[in-house]
Amino acid sequence: MKDIYYEITGKGFPILFLHGNGEDHHIFDHVVEKLSKHYQCICIDSRYHGKSIHAGELSYHQMVQDVLQVINELELEAYDVIGFSDGAITSLLLAQTDTRLKHVVSIGANTKPKAIKPFYRLTFYLQMICLAVFSLYQKKARLTFQLYKLMLTQPQIEYQQLHDISIPVLVLAGEFDMIKESDTKQIAKSLPYGILKIIRHGNHFLLRDAYLETMQEITLFLEACHQEELYENMSSTTIEDR
């Protein structure tokens, strides 16, 4: 059995889907239903999530390595990523290291734990305190404790690191996101080809609570990014027909 579980739906240019903390690939079910008509959708369960292995290091660095393992296993020469929350953080780290990555949709990413609004950070700390006792004898509580700890200690991305990402990145966040808007805006500003979209009245969970608006932005971005590729295919077909 492979360490990292993934499912493939549809045919076309590959898009990897990376979910957030405490979730699995099913958060993208509705998105995949739409996009799989035009793209090959590869949905991954992160380590310690879903059907993937529940062992090893729990870090964003390890998440990047796990995604690279899947990419290498599938022998992808080029791919896009749609990442949410932890998955968005992973996508930004991937974009710094893997030249096969061509376009990124980043939903609700943050560069540092302090970019999470104080109210939410306090909530996470209080939940960790409550979980501490149960963690002594309950496996699920230990995992939840570690997942909260991940959010409160990682990532540690400097804005300057984002300057080297030379691919188009759609930076999405909700107007009432748990991530500080200043961090979201600075992420987009630091990216040479960053496009910022703040979804009005949206929260952190855009694919759940602002699905139509979010999907419109994602679809338009992907269509624009792949327009040249589609044009080349159309031109090739026209020449052959002649």
Automatic annotation (TrEMBL):
InterPro entries: AB_hydrolase_1, AB_hydrolase_fold, AB_hydrolase_sf. Residues 14-113 form the AB hydrolase-1 domain. It comes from the Bacteria. GO terms for molecular function: hydrolase activity. It holds the Pfam family Abhydrolase_1. Keywords: Hydrolase. The keyword Glycosyltransferase does not apply. This is Alpha/beta hydrolase. It comes from Allocoprobacillus halotolerans.
